[in-house]
From TrEMBL:
Keywords: Signal. It comes from Cryobacterium zhongshanensis. PROSITE patterns: PROKAR_LIPOPROTEIN. It comes from the Bacteria. Residues 1-28 form the signal peptide. This is Fructose 1,6-bisphosphatase.
Amino acid sequence: MSRWLTRIAAVTGVAVLSLTLTSCTSVAALVGFAPIDQASQVSATAAPTATAAPLVFDSVFTDMGSIHPTIQLAPQLELQLDMWTEQKTHEWYTDSDKRFSFVISVFDRAQAPEAPFGTKRHVYMSNITVTATTTTASGASTTPFVLNVNPIAATLDPEALTGPGGLLVTSPKGGFQLESNPIGILTPDTYGLTLDFAMTIAGEATAGGGATVTQIVHQAIPVAIFKRM
């Protein structure tokens, strides 16, 4: 997994959800959490007119197109989404080739990075769904991208570790990477889209405990779409 992580920038430490694993008993039912309301991500939504200022979308990307949000699964148990693009996101136009890649890893911060792997809580991922929803000047919305995969079937790691809960994603021996995911042509009045990452996660309540808690966690990533100058 280290060959994957060398491509990723340092964590910004932005925690967006706090989900607690407190039970030592397996939970059969999945507990879902709603993604961030995309309407709250728009900083200006005035109806367009011939003299109106350009609409602005509250994108979380840097100019070079990378972001590293985290989700707290339990005390000192952190899921990190590293996402980057193959071009500057200021070059994400409605008619351009738009591609993104991502890595999902979990870090047990209760243990030192060099601690034996057996002392870390093992977390597994059995499904990931990524849905892109557009924001437009007309108010109409489309879904130009939907990804729904089993991480075990999709991983390119020939030495990937698995368990009853899916693909191991606890660092440094686990993780999931998917590269060059394309977003197609968007309607001309599109000025933003929101990528919702929904991950089915099963994590140990205690290291080596065997019993896991399963939940669905969401991470919303707003991305601005620009007009060609």
